[in-house]
Amino acid sequence: MTTATPELLARPISDFIPHRAPMILIDSITRHQPDSLITQTQISPQSAYFDETQQGVPNYVGIEYMAQSIAALAGVEAILQGQPIKVGFLLGSRKLQMHQHLFALGHTYHTHVTRLYQEESGLAVFDCQIFHQNTLMAQANVNVFQPDDSHSYIKDSHSA
């Protein structure tokens, strides 16, 4: 598989993920290699879920930083293959560890995602880590599912 060019990675994050504002929680892609990606998130008072009293974003939002980074990897891969961006589903996580209680105001975080396994069905497992500088802030193995046709999948799940 091809590695994305710096010009491709400089595009707005909304080009790579199916989310729309205000639910886009990651800011940009900083690095891509086959099966892995790094995104960046800057915490500001405008960040989704920002808590003024705590002066940061609660740590549980980290799982969504991980999920959106996985979606961004899928989006980069789709664009490189000339395919449309698809909706995926966060199924759950294993070995989730949060090493702090919040993502602090003014700090920049880097979310690293690496594909460990993927089935033809669209089921995949990713190793995810969130860093502030060189300090590990959160980690998990995240399970996701990306069907070929999400609309049919949702429609079929409602009629079952």
UniProtKB/TrEMBL annotation:
Pfam family, one: ApeP-like
InterPro entries (UniProt xref): ApeP-like_dehydratase, HotDog_dom_sf
Transmembrane residue ranges: none
Record protein name field: Hotdog family protein
Native organism: Shewanella aestuarii
